[in-house]
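Below is a filled-in request sheet from our internal design queue. Each sheet records the structural input a requester submitted and the sequence that came back. We keep these sheets so that new team members can see what a complete request looks like end to end.

REQUESTER: design group, bay 2
PRIORITY: normal
MODE: inverse folding
CHAIN LENGTH: 389
BACKBONE (tokenized):
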């Protein structure tokens, strides 16, 4: 075992340029990080020092403190579930449904039948608070359910806690999850979105958000890790993405900064295994909303924390920074973009960090983790553990 603890940080949606098959996904020309760099005064010196900016064009840079490269997506989607699945060693043949024009009446009628409540909304919305501000008073007065979708494969249900108790909202979402397992309705996630506050001052109860996902179609390295008595810690939406499979400690968060603070807390603890943290604000708050400046500021906020994170690493720790897909905030529409993703490997024990050859799959990340802990080989991906010196 080369590394006792591995910390995997996923910058949700931070692609670094169009994938080879981008045209199949209407993503020709997409470059999330590259276009943010072009259109703003992005200042991320600490992320630059570990090679992040070099991944845009795969420039040679010997003056870096980490190994850097890109990984090419092999999964059949451009969503979080398939990206994370591939990262953890499996490919799914499921294309999750999206309903970017709203849900068909048959779904809505079925939801009304199983909940006994009227449905309002039924449209795409990239930022939950927007539709809650629009329809929250109506929902509060009549006890309706606000049903909507982001640009992802999801069905979100928002309700004021005074009109629909949170426990009841969870019961409804469990029933809706079962309902949407039908193949032509199969969304990746059903999301409960409780909110509170008075009219004009509504706010999401972030701690009350609950995702109802789908179990991975096959075993991932998370299963192998936990079965071999290693710690597997998920911060953020990791637990929901894998539907609890293979994760033995889950930490809920409300935003990127809380996720980073929870990560720093975990870094102070002794354990052997994997800690996986997803920074979702990049995607949900800025990518989908096509907010270039917001994305820029969020990256700069992360950059300030990077030295603190690096200083907490022990000599036998490994930090991996990557992404699950792209979501170019300068691109048309408000959907994910099919992009290559950055892969950064940092350890205080490295002697000669440099550019690595391009990785043919996100699965190389999982393969490297499995190799480090002497686990069975993953279905996809080639380990680069021996390259990290």
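RETURNED SEQUENCE:
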């Amino acid at each position: 075992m080369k590394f006792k603890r591995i910390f995997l940080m996923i910058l949700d949606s931070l692609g670094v340029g169009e994938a080879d098959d981008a045209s199949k996904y209407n993503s020709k020309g997409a470059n999330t990080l590259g276009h943010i760099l072009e259109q703003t005064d992005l200042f991320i010196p600490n992320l630059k020092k570990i090679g992040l900016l070099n991944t845009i064009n795969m420039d040679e840079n010997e003056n870096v403190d980490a190994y850097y490269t890109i990984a090419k997506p092999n999964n059949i989607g451009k969503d979080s579930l398939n990206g994370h699945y591939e990262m953890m060693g499996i490919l799914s043949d499921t294309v999750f449904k999206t309903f970017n024009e709203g849900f068909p009446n048959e779904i809505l009628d079925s939801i009304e039948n199983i909940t006994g409540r009227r449905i309002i909304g039924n449209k795409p919305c990239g930022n939950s608070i927007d539709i809650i501000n629009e329809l929250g008073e109506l929902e509060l007065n009549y006890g309706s359910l606000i049903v909507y979708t982001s640009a992802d494969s999801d069905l979100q249900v928002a309700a004021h806690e005074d009109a629909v108790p949170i426990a009841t909202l969870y019961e409804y979402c469990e029933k809706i999850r079962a309902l949407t397992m039908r193949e032509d309705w199969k969304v990746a996630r059903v999301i409960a979105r409780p909110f509170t506050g008075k009219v004009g001052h509504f706010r999401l109860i972030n701690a009350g958000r609950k995702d109802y996902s789908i179990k991975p179609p096959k075993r991932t390295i998370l299963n192998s890790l936990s079965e071999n008595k290693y710690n597997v810690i998920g911060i953020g939406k990791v637990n929901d993405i894998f539907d609890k499979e293979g994760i033995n400690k889950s930490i809920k968060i409300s935003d990127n900064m809380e996720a980073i603070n929870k990560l720093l807390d975990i870094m102070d603890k002794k354990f052997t295994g994997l800690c996986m943290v997803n920074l979702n604000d990049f995607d949900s708050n800025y990518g989908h909303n096509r907010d270039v400046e917001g994305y820029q500021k969020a990256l700069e906020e992360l950059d300030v924390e990077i030295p603190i994170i690096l200083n907490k690493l022990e000599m036998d720790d490994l930090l991996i920074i990557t992404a699950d897909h792209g979501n170019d905030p300068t691109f048309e529409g408000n959907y994910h973009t099919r992009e290559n993703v950055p892969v950064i490997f940092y350890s205080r024990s490295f002697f000669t960090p440099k550019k690595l050859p391009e990785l043919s799959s996100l699965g190389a990340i999982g393969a490297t983790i499995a190799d480090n802990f002497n686990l069975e080989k993953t279905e996809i991906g080639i380990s680069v553990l021996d390259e990290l010196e």
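SHEET NOTES:
- The chain is about 30% helix and 20% strand.
- The chain has a mean pLDDT of 96.
FILED BY: M.R.
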